[in-house]
Structure formats: C-alpha cells, structure tokens
Amino acid sequence: MQCGLAIATALLGMVLAGAAGAQGSLPDPARTPGATNPLVTARTIGATICVRDWTRTVRPPLSYTEEMKRWQIRAYGYRDRRLSHYEEDHLIPLELGGAPSDPRNLWPEPKMPADGWSADRKDELEWRLNQLVCAGRLSLAAARHAIATNWIAAYRRFVQRGE
C-alpha cells in the first residue's frame, strides 16, 4: 500500500509540474533529478557498490518498476505508450549508489531513441563509472554528478575519450 501511495504522490507532482515532455534520451530534470541511497557513501563503497552483484540486493522488484513505468509514460505525456519500448532506468544507477525505488531517480528511458543514445549506451557508461570509482580514479560524488547532469556528455568523456 505504501508503495502505491508513494508512486501516486510522486506522479501527481510530475503531472502538476508542467506540460508533457518529449521522449528524449535525457530525462526531464524537473521530474527526474536523481536520488541516492544513503547507505552508499565514499566510505562504504568497498562493502556496497564495489562488491560483485551487490546491486541485486537492492534492485526493486519488476512489479514495482513496471507499475512505475506505466504511470510515468502516461504522466509524462509520451505518445508511444508501448512498455516494451522503454527501460525503467535509474538516473543515478545502482552501481553508483542510486536510490533503488525513489521515483525521483527513475524514468522511462527510450530503448531506441531517434538520436541513437540508447539505454544500452547508458548501461555502458554506468559500468565504466563504477570501475573508475572502485579503482579510486574518480570520486563517487563526481561520478554521480556527471551521470545525473547529462549522461550523454559523461559518456563522451568517460567512454569515448576514456578519461
């Protein structure tokens, strides 16, 4: 019941926030600003995000993310309402300590957007940033900021140029 109430409250806020947005590769920052898991900090990464398969322990159930995706597609005013065309994605990924179930950290990311910046490319960036953080080559805060601000620019910097 609390899960449904949280979703409804978050979605009402999204609907009231403004007109329907276009389906893009980047989420609307007003609707999806990102949120972090308070259990993941720079001090705890060795016991959390840097442990193989740790994200499985915090990933929300598919029933939750599918319900969220269905509501968000409608609330955002997307014309294409086919659930299979979207991945309910964490803006700040679980691999960087993103909040698993917080609606502010989830959005229906198009799998095959017109601009080519697909969910698969974002997944590649998530893996790269996790590797850099766990190797001590990038701070957790910097990785989170880069992906939450503009994941496409972060991809160009950390994947394409290999920083």
Give a concise summary:
By secondary structure, the chain is mainly α.
How would you characterize the overall build of this protein?
The chain is mainly alpha-helical and 163 residues long. The protein has one domain (2-21, 30-160). Helix content is 40%, strand content 6%. It is built from five helices and two strands. The chain has helices at 2-17, 62-75, 119-134, 140-149, 151-160; strands at residues 86-90, 106-110. Strands 1-2 form a two-stranded antiparallel ribbon. The radius of gyration is 15 Å and the shape is globular. The termini are far apart. Mean pLDDT is 88; it is low at 8-22.
Which terms would index this structure?
single chain; 163 residues; mainly alpha; two-stranded antiparallel ribbon; 5 helices
Determine the oligomeric state from the structure: single chain
Strand content: 5-15%
pLDDT under 50 segments (min length 5)?
8-22
Strand order of the largest sheet: 1-2
Number of domains: 1
Globally, the shape reads: globular
Radius of gyration from CA coordinates:
15 Å
What is the helix fraction of residues, given as a range?
40-55%
Write the H/E string, N to C: HHEEHHH
**Biggest sheet layout:** 2 strands, antiparallel
What is the mean pLDDT?
88
Number of strands: 2
Distance separating the two termini: 45 Å
Supply the number of helical segments.
5
Tell me the structural class.
mainly alpha
